[in-house]
Specification:
Blueprint lengths: L17 E2 H8 L2 E3 L5 E2 L1 E2 L9 E4 L16 E4 L11 E3 L3 H12 L8 E2 L4 E2 L4 E2 L4 E2 L4 E2 L4 E2 L4 E2 L4 E2 L4 E2 L4 E2 L4 E2 L4 E2 L4 E2 L4 E4 L4 E4 L2 E4 L6 E3 L4 E2 L4 E3 L6 E3 L4 E2 L4 E2 L4 E2 L4 E2 L4 E2 L4 E2 L4 E2 L4 E2 L4 E2 L3 E3 L4 E2 L7 E3 L8 H19 L17
Amino acid sequence: MPEPRGRDTVVGPFARAYRLSELVDRLGGDLRGSGEVLIRQVAPLESAGPEEIAYLGSAAYQRVLSTTRAAALIVGSAAAVVAGRPCVVVPNPHAYFVRVAWLLNPQHPAQPGIHPMASVDPLAQIAHSAEISAFVTVNEGARIGERVRISSGCCIGAHVVIGSDSQLHANVTVYDRCVIGMRAVMNAGCVIGADGFGGALDDNRWLKMPHLGRVVIGDDVEVGANTTIDRGVMVDTVIEDGVKLDNQIQIGHNVRIGAHTTIAGCVGIAGSARIGAHCIIGGAAMVAGHLHLADRVQISGGTLVMNSIETPGRYTGVYPASEHRAWLRGALAVRRLGESTSGRKRPAKRRPAKTDGTS
C-alpha cells in the first residue's frame, strides 16, 4: 500500500486558527514542545497535514507516528510523546480532541429574526434572538427560547416549549405540548410526539387509544435524522439530560431513557420500557415493551432483549454469521438438541425427610 499522504486542510466557514499554546490555555493539558505551531483543523493521524492536530487513540496506531505529518499530537501519557513533535498530554485524548474540534469549528450563530415566508401564530412567544427560517410553522402558544435556530420546513405544534440554544434542522416535526430542553439538537426529519401504536380490540376491530401524554426532552440531548419518539398514552415519554440518539430509531410511547445513555441507529424500543442512565445500546438492537434496564447496561448490536436486566454489564444475543449451509446445519443441530431434551421425563423431585415424627 502507498504511504499515507497529507491532504488539503478542510476549513469550515466559521473556523479559525489557534497557536497550540492558545489551545492549551483554553482547554488545559500538559504542553510538550513548541506552542507556536499554528493549528487550523483536526484530522486523522494517518492523513493529518502540517497545520492539523491529531490524537493517538491506542497503541495500535503507534506505527503511524513515524509517517504522520500532523503539526501536533494529543497523547494520553508522557511515554507517548514523540521526540521533535509538539504534543499535549491529557488523561483522555479522544475527549480532548473533540473539544479541540468544536473550538476550531464553531457553529453558525443564530441570525435573529423571523423570515417573511414563515407562518407564526400571533399567540406564539419567540425570543428576539431566535432564528425562524422560511417555511417554518409555529402554532398557537408555542414558546421558543433565546438563540434557538429553526430551519426550513419545521412544524412546531401548539404550546410546544423549546429551550435556549437548541437547534432544529430541516423538516423536524414537534407535535402539540411537547417539551425540548436547552442546547438540544434535532436532526432533519425527526418526529417528536406522534401517537404511539396501541389500542383495544373490540368486536374484531381495533379501537384507537388517544394519546394524552407528551414527549419531554431534557437538556443537551441530540436526536438523529428520521428518528421518531412517540408521545405517552396517559403519562409522558421522557428523554433525560445528555441522551444521544442516532438516526432512524423508534421509541415507543411511555418509554423513559435515563441521562447520558447513547443509542445507535435502527434500534427499536417498545412502549413503556425503562432504560437506565449511562447505558449503551448497539445498532439494530430491539428492546421489548414494559422492560427495565439498569444503569450502565451495554447491549450489543443486533441483540433482542426480551427480559429486564437488573445488573450492569454487557449483554449479547447475536448468532454469528457464517456460510449459509453451515448456518443451517448449526441451526438444525440446535433445534434437535432442544427436541431431545424436551421429550425427556423429568426425574421426580425427592421430598425432604420430615423430622417432626409424622408420616
